[in-house]
Amino acid sequence: MAGIKYRENKLEWSLLDYEAMEEVIKVLMYGAIKYSPDNYKAGLNRFDLLDAIQRHLAEVMKDNEFDEETGAHHMAHIVCNCLFYIHNFKHEKFMDDVR
């Protein structure tokens, strides 16, 4: 007889592609050296994050897949900036919210 484990309404971490996340972690590690670990948690300007997302997306649209400075995929930079945005939104940490 098999045991019972209730999964309803629980996060399914197995859906995450950990190999793809390695590129994201590379960006986070680079940023930890350049700025400091968890720098984004101190609060960021939401327009700066949106601008960074757009810049990296524009590079991908121009068929430039990899960031020159970090060597990481531009989409990994977009994921990081999206994560930073979500963190700052959830914790009400946006700084200089007005342009």
Feature tags:
99 residues; mainly alpha; globular
Number of DSSP-assigned strands? 0
Query: What's the alpha carbon Rg, rounded to whole Å?
Result: 17 Å
Helix fraction by DSSP (H/I, runs of at least 4): 40-55%
Alpha-beta classification: mainly alpha
Distance between the termini: 62 Å
Q: What sequence of helices (H) and strands (E) makes up the elements?
A: HHH
How much of the polypeptide forms β-strand, as a percent range?
Answer: under 5%
Average predicted local confidence, pLDDT: 95
Low-confidence stretches: none
Shape: globular
- Give a quick account of the main beta sheet: strands, pairing sense, barrel closure: none
Number of helices: 3
Please provide a written account of the structure.
This protein is mostly helical. It has a domain at 43-99. Helix content is 51%, strand content 0%. It is built from three helices and no strands. Helix 1 (18-34) crosses helix 3 (74-90) and helix 2 (46-61) runs antiparallel to helix 3 (74-90). The chain starts with 17 loop residues before the first helix and ends in a 9-residue tail after the last helix.
